[in-house]
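Suppose a colleague, Dr. K., hands you the sequence of a protein chain of 188 amino acids and asks what its three-dimensional shape might be. Before reaching for any lab equipment, you can write down a predicted structure in token form. Begin with the sequence itself:
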Amino acid sequence: MKWIANRCRRRRDISLLAAGALGGAEKAGLESHLAGCQECRDYYAALTTLTAPLADWEESLSAIEATPAARMRWAGAVREAAVSSAVRPSRLANVWQSFWRELIWPSRYAWTGMAALWVLILAVNGRISDRPIIEAGAHSSSPREMMQAWEEQNRILAELAQPSFVAPAAPPNVPRPRSQRERDWAII
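The predicted structure, expressed as tokens, is then:
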């Protein structure tokens, strides 16, 4: 919240100065500003206390070496990555694995319930459709009988589709004089 109350808007430049990323002319102008602005001097001091230990990180961390155990783990990881990239599963296998992992497995109980419901529906449907055939003692019809039945149905359909009654043609709408017209409306 202090930056809201700060009237000076040069915080970014002060951060760059503390990091050592400003050139000569900008650096000189900002140092002259720091000489006159107490809030910016305090901010610069806080930044330098934070960034000073990080300024020479290359010299202080150059002596760190990986242990032999870490080197062996890295080498094993590199070998595994090379083997796994050489033996890649097919694209179809990747699609199936993705489908299984994202759609089927999270809702496996729902899928199981739906599968059980379908098996139940198929079993009931099979029992219902088999019963009338067995009870009636139905026999298979010959192709000739089926063709005769089909022709009979077509004949009946043609009779129903053709109208036997032809309505008389409507008389032409001949204009009549007003005296002969009937009143279609009446005022009550």
